[in-house]
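Q: Here's a chain of 200 amino acids. Please give me its 3D structure as tokens.
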Amino acid sequence: MNNPRLIAAAAAVLMLSACEKPAGPVNNAGSATTDATASGTLVASALPALPTVPEPVFGPNFVDSAGTANLFEIAEGRLALKRSGNAAVKAFASMMIDAHTKSTIALQAAVAASGQTIDLPSALPDALQTKLAALTQTDAGSFDQAYMADQLAAHEGALSALQIYARRGDVAALKTFASDTVPTVEDHLARAKALQASLK
């Protein structure tokens, strides 16, 4: 789970990641080369950027990516509920916790329906633990802007991953999950953009 090539941007989560150009091509061994994503520019410069990930065209890569994105969204949402003093930001964070908890359940069901043995991630990898720790230490006056910058980057990455897998994925049940989840993540991204704009 600490291999950055298998991290969602998460989503991730949701994953859950065509607002950015796809990462480099996957080779026959299932590894990939990656380019810096445009979404990285959305993250506050004082915080580490979300990691880039390979195109999740293989089932285990996709499940790890989507599952990690869900974990990251839930963790940041809980932190925002504790630290933000903005009612709209807290409402968004609560929505993220609820939506990505449901997404995790739906992803588990898709894995079961696929007949494959693929474990969902149970903890954030080191890169996202560092990202979460940096947000935790952000001063109160900058927290909301930093949180929403993370949300924009994470949802753009998640949307790209979902769209890629829905088009090119190798497992039918997971492709259906990806396709069905795209509209939800598109809605979350639109809400995140609007909320971030309102904070300026």
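Q: Can you summarize the key feature?
A: The longest helix spans residues 140-168.
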